[in-house]
């Protein structure tokens, strides 16, 4: 799920990726709304809000939204740099390491808020969360070759509509079964992403109302466990393959 393999990724792998990363993105997005009153990943809405701030001449609001958007973009750029560096050095676990780093930063933010929460820090923490959401979305997008965008639901709904249109039209145009099956799998993958994010948003609000920043810390720990588990499985399989090759050579 979190490993870039030489073979073409299956839709099943991408659906598992969506279940984990889109759900956690929705949870964090909803928690940030409950805690700070902002969506750290809703770049369409934040960009649109800029026009309102310009019209009302609210420079502080304008600067905050601009910085929040820039933080999301910078997070995406950083994730891209890390992926390029990792793939160049053949680090198969580079995506796991990125998610692990994200989980550490998120956990540190949660601990800080548990100890020193103040409404005066809301905008700074929102910018940091926007940066993490940029990393999160960029990682899922690169790993799935664009099929899973963990936070970009507008684009995912568009892709789902295109896939649905292609699937329905395949019965009219009489395309091959394999092509129809491909469009069906594509549609399922996009719908999994959408419903995972939606479910995450609902769960995130409930968790934050129940446990506050402890729930956010729990989310960071969960992401760390997922990343470490993927690293452990990958290393175990690599060691097993090396052992098998050595055994063949000796025989």
Automatic annotation (TrEMBL):
Protein name (record) = YoaK family protein
Keyword Metal-binding: yes or no?
no
Q: PANTHER family in the record, alphabetically?
A: SLR0142 PROTEIN, UPF0700 TRANSMEMBRANE PROTEIN YOAK
* Transmembrane annotation, as ranges: 16-39, 59-82, 94-117, 153-175, 187-208, 214-235
Transmembrane found in the keyword field: yes
Q: Which UniProt keywords apply?
A: Membrane, Transmembrane, Transmembrane helix
């Amino acid at each position: 799920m979190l490993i870039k393999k030489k073979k073409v990724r299956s839709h099943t792998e991408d659906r598992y990726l969506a279940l984990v990363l889109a759900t956690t993105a929705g949870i964090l997005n909803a928690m940030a709304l409950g805690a700070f009153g902002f969506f750290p990943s809703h770049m369409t809405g934040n960009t649109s809000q800029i026009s309102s701030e310009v019209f009302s001449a609210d420079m502080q609001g304008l600067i905050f939204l601009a910085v929040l958007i820039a933080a999301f973009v910078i997070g995406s750029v950083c994730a891209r740099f890390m992926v390029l560096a990792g793939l160049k050095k053949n680090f198969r676990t580079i995506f796991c390491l990125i998610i692990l780093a994200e989980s550490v930063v998120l956990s540190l933010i949660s601990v800080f808020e548990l100890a020193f929460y103040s409404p005066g820090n809301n905008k700074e923490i929102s910018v940091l969360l926007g940066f993490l959401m940029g990393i999160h979305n960029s990682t899922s997008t690169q790993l799935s070759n664009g099929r899973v965008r963990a936070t970009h639901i507008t684009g995912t709904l568009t892709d789902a509509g295109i896939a649905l249109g292609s699937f329905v039209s395949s019965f009219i145009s009489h395309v091959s079964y394999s092509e129809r099956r491909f469009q069906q799998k594509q549609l399922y993958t996009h719908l999994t992403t959408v419903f995972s994010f939606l479910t995450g948003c609902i769960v995130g609000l409930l968790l934050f109302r129940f446990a506050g920043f402890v729930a956010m810390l729990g989310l960071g720990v969960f992401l760390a466990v997922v990343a470490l588990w993927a690293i452990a499985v990958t290393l175990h399989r690599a060691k097993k393959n090396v052992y098998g090759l050595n055994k063949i050579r000796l025989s």
